[in-house]
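Checklist before submission:
- one chain only
- standard amino acids only
- sequence pasted in full

Submission:
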Amino acid sequence: MLKALLGSPRVDILEKAIGASTLRQKVISDNIANVNTPKFKKSEVQFEELLAKEMSQDKLQMARTNAAHMPMQAEGIPGPRVNTITQTSYRTDGNNVDIDTEMAGMAKNNIYYNAVVQQLSGYFSGLRSAIKEGKG
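Returned file contents:
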């Protein structure tokens, strides 16, 4: 039962979102660290688009009605992907890092991370409340 509560799709998605946000923070930090490196090309993390695409596809969900049935292989939630942007260049030395864009992205990522952690915390608070109420 604990596995069913902790392994819910909501927890899986929020866990992946936290991982994507953490990766995005590292990528943005790397971009900022290399703002003055000639020929450096910035990278971006792609997650939300992949998740939205996966969730928008109508897929028939298989249900396991008996524990003896073989589990179905779920395609799962997509993980974050790092893409290097090679087509642009903001300076004559070939570097394409715009410090203002990176700082705005870092602030946006911070807000996103806090929102996702708050959602996950709320989920577990709800579980804790349900467990406490059941002990009466």
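Reviewer check: Residues 8 and 14 are 10 Å apart (CA to CA).
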